[in-house]
Backbone:
């Protein structure tokens, strides 16, 4: 299915999306993107559907062709203090704030958002597979976050973040069990299955 260019009738519409919400370690990362009307790309879609090489191919194209884009990491300590949903929305807000042009309308992937200034917005479930600007934001959020996780992997290679990117894989949970947690782990998350049980 071809992606639509935009949702609203406003001239400057921005799409926003986040990556890393379900991870046990690392930041939650959001991007906001405003695309020009002439923007076209046949492989662009939701970043989760794209191969790593296609995401790597799209990242510089989106950054170069967009009217404006911005990316924000919200780190573990803040995630633990305000919770992951609020941290995701904050990352989106900060990315929109950093855009060189203020959008007249915002489209958001998913179903949760809080008003940003007085700009009208719409939340769109699976919006990253429907609208170009949200798909672009999903690619930037994912590639920027992946690069960060690959960097901190060097510091703590035993968790294999370069592979799992901080997601709760069996291997990641096994490493937490064996080595404990790092400064990059989110303390408010249930990091191991046994944390679901009460030790009475």
Residues:
């Amino acid at each position: 299915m071809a992606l639509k260019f935009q949702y609203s009738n406003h001239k400057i519409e921005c799409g926003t999306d986040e990556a890393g919400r379900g991870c046990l370690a690392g930041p939650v990362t959001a991007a906001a993107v405003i695309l020009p009307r002439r923007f076209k790309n046949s492989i662009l879609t939701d970043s989760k559907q794209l191969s790593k090489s296609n995401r790597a191919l799209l990242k510089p194209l989106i950054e170069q062709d967009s009217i404006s884009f911005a990316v924000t990491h919200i780190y573990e300590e803040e995630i633990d203090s305000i919770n992951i949903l609020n941290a995701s929305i904050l990352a989106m807000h900060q990315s929109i704030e950093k855009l060189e042009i203020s959008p007249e309308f915002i489209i958001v992937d998913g179903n949760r958002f809080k008003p940003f200034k007085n700009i009208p917005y719409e939340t769109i479930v699976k919006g990253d597979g429907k609208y170009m600007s949200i798909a672009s934001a999903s690619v930037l959020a994912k590639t920027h976050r992946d690069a960060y996780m690959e960097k901190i992997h060097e510091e703590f290679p035993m968790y294999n973040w370069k592979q799992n990117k901080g997601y709760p894989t069996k291997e990641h949970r096994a490493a937490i069990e064996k080595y404990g947690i790092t400064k990059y782990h989110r303390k408010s998350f249930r990091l191991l299955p046994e944390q679901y049980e009460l030790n009475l």
